[in-house]
From TrEMBL:
The keyword Endoplasmic reticulum does not apply. The lineage of its organism: Eukaryota, Sar, Alveolata, Apicomplexa, Aconoidasida. The keyword Transmembrane helix applies. It comes from the Eukaryota. The chain crosses the membrane at residues 36-58, 70-90, 110-135, 147-168, 174-194, 206-233, 260-282, 294-313, 362-381, 401-424, 436-459. This is Uncharacterized protein. Keywords: Membrane, Transmembrane, Transmembrane helix.
Length: 520
């Protein structure tokens, strides 16, 4: 069964070292070439998502859809794109579990991972080229449907490659996240540049999206070639000794899952809440539409700053190391600050016996998360009760909503990145013989993250549609749906409406007639 891999081994050995040594300088030192490659991959893989978020308005104009359909087109595209992303993660997880980490192929796992990632990046580039051809060569119902399905199909490549890159280059996850973070700022600068340089008389919506897709294709080609160099000239070759090593000192699957479980809960909670409230509720449900776009640009820049700050915290703040009691990042509280941290109360309960719960880093995360939940609660009350005490202060007041939304995005993203960067260092144990179990847990973590992300998007879309329908009914003279309900009853009413409405939204995204879907 291992014949193809043995054949690959013979090729590497037969060619000798001369062809391989020419690329060794690229991987010498601190691995800067690989870091740049992973950064560009993060920037590349998120481009289709930006084409959905920042390009839906341009696509609707190109294909002759009215302005009121932009939000619906964006919503259904985003949900199905996220679902395809989830399917990609599932595929990667299954391959990691049953093939790469299976007993029969374990020592050839790097061959499988490398080949798998290169094929996916090639498919990603081909889909972007097809997207450009469909967008630029015609209009009509068939064209917009093809554009829709091509765009959402890129989500599969995104999810599958995302998990593979994080597993093959786990120490560079921060650079991968930085690539994600700067994507919004790059797209904003690209759109503004096209607007500035476009000659008068040219169609702005067409050329803006055309240049955006072309930019994504170029990025995909460059990053794909660089990753191919990393895989072939650094990862591939004779099977690595650690794949068949009997040495201990690594966590096995049980240990890795157990010690990473707290971060699963923390990270999934962050993802679920962040994308439930932003940007659907704030800013689009509590600000005038003309005030929303500028705030979105500001938040994109904040996300870039967060990505860069996470690199600094990982490098100098040791947030990727194991969390321990009495230590806040690189600072030993007991010795450097002269403060004795009393963790006896925490240690007395078995629930808090983990090294995570007793760490000041966990308390820092709680502070960020508490601030985030407080702002999110204010936004919910403002949206539901614009004439209430809180609503009168904040509703359509950008002087308050701008900094509060910026704080929401900042604390939410900091919380997520804090967890992401610490997961690898906190998976501890001694029963395993290699890092394969930690890599598999990282894949499972991303899979659960996407499931939470998909669920929160579907629920928020169903909830917001039901809320807007209820608000429209009030404007027509009908009573508000929760007028005579208490707080608890109202809460569960909107949860039920979110589930029912979200299921209808999810079923509706599998459409073969996009124009009819968004026009109804």
């Amino acid at each position: 069964m291992g014949a193809p891999f043995e054949f690959a081994d013979s090729i590497f050995k037969g060619l000798g070292g001369e062809w391989h040594t020419k690329f060794k300088p690229l991987f010498a030192g601190d691995g800067m070439f690989e870091r740049i490659t992973v950064f560009l991959l993060g920037l590349t893989l998120l481009q289709p998502v930006m084409l959905t978020l920042a390009g839906s308005a341009f696509a609707c104009r190109r294909f002759g859809l009215p302005p009121e359909t932009i939000g619906i087109f964006l919503g259904v595209t985003y949900i199905l794109q996220t679902f395809c992303n989830f399917l990609g993660w599932v595929t990667t997880t299954l391959i990691s579990k049953y093939i790469i980490n299976g007993d029969e192929y374990r020592k050839y796992g790097i061959y499988i991972q490398g080949s798998y990632s290169m094929v996916l990046l090639f498919a990603h580039c081909m889909l972007l080229i097809r997207l450009l051809i469909v967008f630029s060569t015609g209009i009509g119902d068939k064209r917009i449907t093809t554009y829709y399905w091509t765009l959402v199909s890129t989500g599969f490549c995104f999810g599958a490659v995302n998990g593979t890159i994080r597993t093959m280059s786990p120490m560079n996850n921060t650079f991968f996240n930085i690539g994600f973070s700067v994507t919004g700022t790059c797209v904003t600068c690209l759109h503004l540049t096209v607007k500035k340089l476009l000659p008068k008389g040219r169609e702005l919506s067409y050329w803006t999206l055309y240049c955006h897709i072309l930019f994504a294709i170029i990025l995909s080609l460059v990053s794909g070639i660089m990753w191919t160099i990393v895989v072939i000239f650094d990862r591939l070759g004779p099977p690595k000794p650690e794949y068949s090593s009997d040495a201990s000192g690594y966590p096995d699957q049980s240990e890795a899952l157990t010690t990473a479980a707290p971060f699963f809960i923390m990270l999934w909670g962050c993802w679920g809440f962040v994308f439930f409230f932003y940007p659907g509720i704030s800013p689009f449900s509590i600000l005038r539409f003309c005030d929303c776009q500028a705030l979105m640009y500001i938040c994109m820049c904040i996300e870039t700053c967060i990505g860069l700050s996470m690199y600094a915290l990982k490098t100098y703040g040791q947030i990727g190391d194991k969390w321990t009691a009495g230590k806040l990042g690189p600072i030993d509280i007991n010795t450097q600050l002269g403060v004795q941290l009393d963790t006896n109360v925490l240690k007395s309960n078995s629930l808090f016996s983990s090294h995570v719960w007793t760490s000041p880093n966990f308390l820092l995360w709680c502070c960020f998360y508490a601030g985030y939940i407080t702002i999110a609660t204010i936004f919910i009350l403002t949206m539901h009760y614009p004439d209430g005490v809180i609503g009168k202060i904040f509703f359509q007041r950008k002087f308050f909503i701008y900094p509060m939304t910026m704080f929401l995005v900042f604390t939410g993203n900091i919380s997520m990145n804090l967890c992401w960067n610490a997961v690898w260092g906190n998976m501890v144990g001694e029963k395993g013989s290699n890092n394969a179990s930690r890599g598999l847990v990282m894949t499972i973590l991303g899979l659960g993250e996407l499931l939470i992300l998909l669920s929160s998007r579907i629920l928020s879309e169903g909830y917001l549609r039901s809320f807007r329908a209820g608000k429209a009914a009030v404007e027509s003279g009908l009573p508000y749906p929760t007028d005579r309900m208490g707080f608890v009853s109202s809460f569960f009413y909107w949860v039920q409406r979110g589930v029912v409405g979200g299921s209808k939204v999810f079923v509706g995204v599998f459409t073969t007639d996009v124009r009819t879907k968004v026009m109804v």
